[in-house]
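User:
I would dearly like some help making sense of a protein record. Take your time, and here it is.
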Amino acid sequence: MIDEKVEEFLKTVAAAPLSVLLLDYDGTLAPFAVDRQEAVPYEGLENLLQQIADTGRTRLVIVTGRDAREIPPLLRLHPSPEVWGAHGLQRLKIDGSCEMPEIPAGVVHALDDGKRWLADLGLEESAEMKPGSIAVHWRAVEDEEEASKLRGRVLLGWFPIAERASLRLLEFDGGAEMRMPDQDKGHAVQTVLKETEGAPIAYLGDDATDERAFQALDPVGLTVLVRPTQRRTCAQAWLKPPDELMEFLSRWLEATQKTPLGRSANL
């Protein structure tokens, strides 16, 4: 159900010539999958996002922990939207160009050490190498006790590696990541916010990694936790996927199909 805070925000979207919709991918637009390349969006969601983009009144931005280049084949929008990958380290623009800072040699060596530790644990196939980071997933381990033991073994080796190279250890639902500390999803949000000053802006995400984005946007925009069960969060609203998420996006589309007061419908 759409609450009063969201209703009020959607009124500002309807009245504005341009609004900004920032969306996490895994767990928000798509349910988690053991094989990450099979994590496709909820049924009907691509069509809704395509319609939203086609109105020309929404700047659509995906903010993900993945390598940004993985998103376009999964989220088949035309043209492909802007994507911030690797938790804000990497920026894939609409024209296909990609911006990313140079990864220091010390970080590269540390990430290689982190990968070798996973290989020693027999977890190399569960490793995800990304620009400036390495992640490991144990979501496929159904037994909670076994997953907890696996987490402990991973972090036992990763803690000294991260400390030596001044990297951050970040836990998320079903895994952990060792990454460069300089930029995160909050950085991505702050950059987009500066570029679209004054436009209504919303961020939807599900994970602990999205909290930085929520904090960066509060109180100037709408922050929404998208998750089957609620948890402690900085977000202002909560939506259960997929039904309430689809309702929100449908309402956003409806709002952007309306002509702002005193504006041409072609804007």
Observations:
- The longest helix spans residues 144-165.
- The mean pLDDT is 92.
